[in-house]
Amino acid sequence: MHNLPFYNALNRIPQAVPPIWFMRQAGRYHEHYQVLSKEHGFTKLCKTPDLAAEVALGPIDDFDFDVSIMFSDILFILSALGMGLEYTSTGPKLEFSLDAKTISRLDTSQNAIERLTFQAEALKKTRQRLPDNKSLIGFNGGLWSLFTYAVEGTHKGSLIKTKSSMDLFHPFMELLLPVLIENTRQQLEAGAEIVMMFDTAAGELSPSLYHSLVVPYLEKLVSCFPKKIGLYTKGTTPSHYDHPLFKSDILAGLGVDHRWSAADLGRLPTGFSQGNFDQTLLFLPKDEFLSHLHIYLDKIYETGPPPGWVSALGHGVLPKTPTSNVRLFVNTVRQYAQEHTSVEHVSAEHVSAEHVSAEHAPTEPALKA
Fold first, then answer.
1. Phi/psi at 65 (nearest 5 deg)?
2. Of 50, 51, 68, 71, which Cα lies nearest the Cα of 59?
3. How far apart are CA 73 and CA 77, in angstroms?
4. For residue range 278-313, what is the model confidence (pLDDT) as tens digits?
5. Hey, which residues does 232 pair with through a beta bridge?
6. Contact, 143 vs 217, CB < 8 A?
7. Helix/strand/coil (H/E/C) assignment for every residue in 2-65
8. Which domains does the chain have, with CATH numbers?
9. pTM, rounded to two decimals
10. What is the DSSP string of 188-249?
């Protein structure tokens, strides 16, 4: 049970039409979500597996995305560690901020793990209802983003307080990493083909600081699950990915935001290459939106799409995004790809569709830490 275009992207098999999925594709912009949220509220939707599955399936039914993603939130892991969590009209609120005094208030990793089982259950329910030709992925917050939320309650701004608290990063990781490892294991066992790490604050660190501070812990995590963890970062540069980890083929793939050029996207060194159309352009009138989308696609296909390309936005779908343009994006990319793919490229896709290569056969998750 998987989506062939996404399977091909994971294995960098050439194909005519890329898989398409968006971050936050089941979110606030979508009427299907709005109806359910009005009745149940966000927290109940996330923590009730049947409801989480229902939300996740909405954009699959509406827009025919290739991939469904677990409906949840990255901050539940902080709540599970004892930081509390409330979703208000102005955004999520933790009960306290992480500092030298409050770090002792964090709960044990084992207790945190037990509080997160609803996510695996949501994935199981989603997989049961998802069509066989659609893929399913899970996710967690990126290491630096979770730390910034714990310290500041947000990942926006200059992050002065967070960067002034970097001595807390290591003891925080000692508690967080076992939770992430076990939660990832549970998500994979529940039916996720890969687990994405969303590190939207990563670009606030210089490449050298990202490499020295964050990457060692990221290496520990991904080494437990080779080719089963994908990483998305926001605000990063090619230099952030200029590290042996990202060239070692241990990650499932990498995603970037709209600040990256098509050429840079094509040089991502491992697994799938996900991105990266500017999500704000979906607010434009239809003709203007299509013009920008075609300019973007022209650049992508100028020398051929990147290896393992997953067509996506540079970040999540924004609230109030016109659903007509989401639908138009999906249909336009598929049509454009069919019309601009060489004979050789189509031939390679045909071979991959036969599933004759043992080298690219689906593999079981690496479930031993």
1. -60, 155
2. 68
3. 9
4. 999 999 999 999 999 999 999 999 988 999 999 999
5. 198, 255
6. yes
7. CCHHHHHHHCCCCCCCCCECCCCCCCCCCHHHHHHHHHHCHHHHHHCHHHHHHHHHHHHHHHCC
8. 4-360 (3.20.20.210)
9. 0.91
10. HHTT-SEEEEEETTGGGS-HHHIIIIIHHHHHHHHHTSTT-EEEEESS--GGGG-SGGGGTT
